[in-house]
Amino acid sequence: MQGLAIREVPGGWDNQMWRLGEELVVRMPRTERAPDLQRKECRWLPVLAPRLPLPVPTPVRIGEPSARFPRTWSIMTWVPGEPLDYTLISRDDHATDTLADFLRALHVEAPAEAPTSSDRGAHPKKCMDGFEYFLQAIAPDGIAVDVRAVRAVWDDAVAAP
């Protein structure tokens, strides 16, 4: 991996990301919870990847905490594309079908040894507090979003069993 160009990738929630050459990304945790999430990703993404109709990052290397950086970090394969918070969502039939196929493949019973998470996979009824905040985040000034339509989809999700 020596000699590969490195450049910062804007965005990221729990991790600061750096492109390493054209094929890889270095993920350096910003939050306390990120190292544990990275360990789970490195364990489970290779299990999920063959089942999914779209590419997902796969682990290449796990870096251990040291005096230079106090948290676990990772190098993953780079999946090209634009982060959703930096681009408009496509509404064509192909995008809809692709997303539906991905969610259908993902939404199957997990293996018995798969980890559980208290902050992911909750029913929308348990996520009401953040809805208004995130609704405003997808509809900033100057971008046309049908807020009533988004709210209607959310209300349907909350009402679902």
Automatic annotation (TrEMBL):
Pfam families: APH. InterPro entries: AGP_Transferase (IPR051678), Aminoglycoside_PTrfase (IPR002575), Kinase-like_dom_sf (IPR011009). Residues 6-120 form the Aminoglycoside phosphotransferase domain. This is Aminoglycoside phosphotransferase domain-containing protein. It comes from Streptomyces sannanensis. The lineage of its organism: Bacteria, Bacillati, Actinomycetota, Actinomycetes, Kitasatosporales.
